[in-house]
Every structure is written in structure tokens, then in C-alpha cells.
Amino acid sequence: MLVDCVIKCSKLNYGMTYKQFRQLTYGCGRRLQSKFPSSWIGNKIAGIDWLLDFVKRHKNLTLRTPENTSLSRNTAFNETNVMKFFDNYGRALKSWNFIAGRMCNIDGTGVSTVVQSANIVAQIGKKTG
After folding, report:
1. How many CB atoms lie within 10 A of CB 125?
2. CA-CA distance, 86 to 122, in Å (whole number)?
3. CA distance linking residue 47 with residue 37, whole number of Å
4. Burial call 26-51: b when 16+ CB within 10 Å, e when fewer
5. In angstroms, how far is the first alpha carbon of the chain from the final one?
6. pTM of the model
7. Is the pLDDT reported for residue 114 higher than 70?
8. Residue 116 contacts residue 69 (beta carbons within 8 Å)
9. Distance CA 129, CA 113 (A)
10. For residue 80, how many C-alpha atoms fall within 13 Å in the half-sphere facing its CB?
11. Are strands 120-123 and 16-17 parallel, antiparallel or unpaired?
């Protein structure tokens, strides 16, 4: 049941993070009245060791880091977003009364626009998810 859930989520391009999968496992265990370690009850989550062993037992699953996507790619460069930017920029200029000598241009070096993704449990051999 857990493997099917992970595979279904992967097919929907939604990779479950380690934490989400461990919480799901704990919830399923409670509903099915399964026996599990007392540490699971206290933390309300399955242990990381259990997760590693689970993936070893199920050869069609893997633990991986998904490819991070640029924030600008996610939000898309389009007319609506550009107009919104310039509207906000114009309001900022008016409200703060900036003068040309107090403005500078920066290139953003060292500033990442890539959102870091959490590691996920996914079906082996799939690029998405």
C-alpha cells in the first residue's frame, strides 16, 4: 500500500519527502493497529532507519534529490509578471522619493533564485516526481 502510494505520487509529479513518507507510514500503522517501536509514538513519525530498510526491501523505490528548478522558470517570464514588477517599482520610487544618485544597479551575483528541494522517496528510473 505504501509503495503504491509513493508510485502514484511520483506519477503525479509530487515526490514525497522523507518526512512526509515517514509521517504517512506512522499514520497508516496507527490506523491498521500495527506494532511499531515506542519511539514512533513519541515522535508521531516512523524512524529514518526504518525508511532506509524499507527502500532496501523495495527495489522499485529510491531515495533521491530532485532537480531544483529556478524560481524564475517556475513563475514564468510573461507580460503580466513584468507589468506587475514595473507597477511595484514605480510605487516604490514614488513612496521613497529616490533620487538618481542614491540608486545603484547590482547583478545579483551570489544570490540564488533556485529553490532547494527536499530529498524524496520516488519510483526508480523516473525523472519526474
Report:
1. 7
2. 41
3. 9
4. beebeeeeeeeeeebeeeebbbeebb
5. 18
6. 0.62
7. no
8. no
9. 21
10. 2
11. antiparallel
